[in-house]
Amino acid sequence: MANLTITVDEETVKRARIRALEEGTSVNALLRGYLEDYAGVRRERLEAWRKIQELARSSGMGSGGQRLPKREEIYNRPIMRNRPEGPL
Questions:
Q1: CA-based radius of gyration for the chain
Q2: Do 31 and 40 touch, CB atoms closer than 8 A?
Q3: pTM to 2 decimal places
Q4: CA separation, residue 2 to residues 7, 32, 36, 43, 45 (Å)
Q5: What is the DSSP string of 12-28?
Q6: CA quadruple 70, 76, 80, 85: dihedral positive or negative?
Q7: Running DSSP on this structure, what letter comes out for residue 82?
Q8: I need a surface site. Which of 9, 50, 70, 87 has the fewest CB within 10 A?
Q9: In whole angstroms, how far apart are CA 4 and each of 7, 44, 64?
């Protein structure tokens, strides 16, 4: 990661630090986010995430809207009822 030095008057930096603190972030994180937006990095990441989601949806994998079985249902199947007790 590269470092960047900028010149800003002290009052602006002070107010920015206070506001960032109130928002639970830092001036550094805010500037990084702005520069990533400006450079298109976030747009590229969002587009990659959309592609991953579309591939997942079109893969045919998934539950098909069916709920997953509960633990009791899995262990109550005949194959599980007839297994010997103890470690395998």
A1: 26
A2: no
A3: 0.49
A4: 17, 11, 13, 20, 19
A5: HHHHHHHHHHHTTS-HH
A6: positive
A7: T
A8: 87
A9: 10, 22, 49
DSSP string, 52-79: HHHHHHHT--S-TTPPPPPHHHHHTSHH
- 34 residue type, one letter: Y
27 within 8 A of 14, measured Cβ to Cβ = no
* Residue 7 DSSP label: -
In this structure, the chain runs to a length of: 88
39 contacts 45 by C-beta, under 8 angstroms: no
pLDDT in tens, 15-70: 999 999 999 999 999 999 999 888 888 888 889 999 999 998 888 777 777 888 88
Q: Compute the C-alpha angle 22/27/42, nearest 5°.
A: 110
In 3D space, the residue among 56, 55, 6, 53 whose CA is nearest the CA of residue 31 turns out to be: 6
